[in-house]
Write a structure and sequence with these properties.
With 204 residues, the chain is mostly helical. It contains eleven helices and no strands. It has helices at 3-23, 33-40, 44-50, 54-76, 85-102, 104-110, 116-125, 130-138, 145-162, 164-169, 175-194.
């Protein structure tokens, strides 16, 4: 990377880091582009070289933070040392949930956005080959990628939709109490994908 490209990347990263700090303290609605560039020490015109508006920046931040969550899980969850595919997937999920639990600012920013759509965008922009990771976990072939995609989608949507209030508000229970129930639901989903394929409804 040349010096010019490195300088541009540093400015973009500074804008994103500053925006994350402001979004998670003041809120996105109350944060202006002027707030972001002033705190980052970057000219306002430079902002528009990288982002359309503050909501475009928000979306890119969500994708970046999601990618960081998954990268951390791949490195530190110990999933590779597990034997069964189910154990590997649960290890990854538990690490992600622990990260969110330990970082309230990140939790509030990203938790409601932890969904398949965000994960797909993270896949596109990440240097990590997530498809290969999940194929290795479930020992599937590329020809089975669509079924694997549906499987990961189902689990990810379950985790994203059920854990927001559990982590933030301990409602209906705290995370430690909820985890065994979440694991049970994930295992049930994974077992269903190992059984006969779903029967398609007959069109009227």
């Amino acid at each position: 990377m040349g010096k010019l490209e490195e300088n541009k990347l540093q400015k973009k990263n500074r804008l994103m880091d500053t925006a994350f700090s402001l979004y998670t303290t003041k809120g996105i609605v109350r944060t202006t582009i002027s707030d972001i560039v002033e705190k980052a020490g970057i000219a306002k015109g430079t902002f528009y070289l990288y982002f359309r508006d503050k909501y475009d920046l928000e979306e890119k931040l969500i994708v970046r933070k999601s990618d960081e969550l998954f990268r951390h899980a791949l490195e530190y969850s110990g999933y590779a040392g597990k034997t069964a595919p189910e154990e590997k997937l649960i290890a990854l999920i538990d690490d992600i949930l622990l990260q969110l639990k330990n970082d309230p600012h990140l939790m509030r920013f990203i938790s409601k956005n932890l969904s398949w759509g965000v994960f797909r965008r993270a896949i596109i922009h990440s240097e990590v080959d997530y498809a290969a990771v999940f194929e290795s976990i479930f020992e599937t072939q590329p020809t089975d990628r669509k079924t694997l995609e549906i499987e990961v989608y189902t689990v990810l949507e379950l985790v994203g939709s059920t854990c927001h209030t559990v982590i933030l508000d301990s409602d209906p229970v705290d995370m430690d109490t909820y985890l065994p129930y979440l694991h049970r639901a994930i295992l049930a989903i994974l077992r269903s994908f190992r059984e006969d394929p779903p029967v398609r409804p007959v069109s009227a």
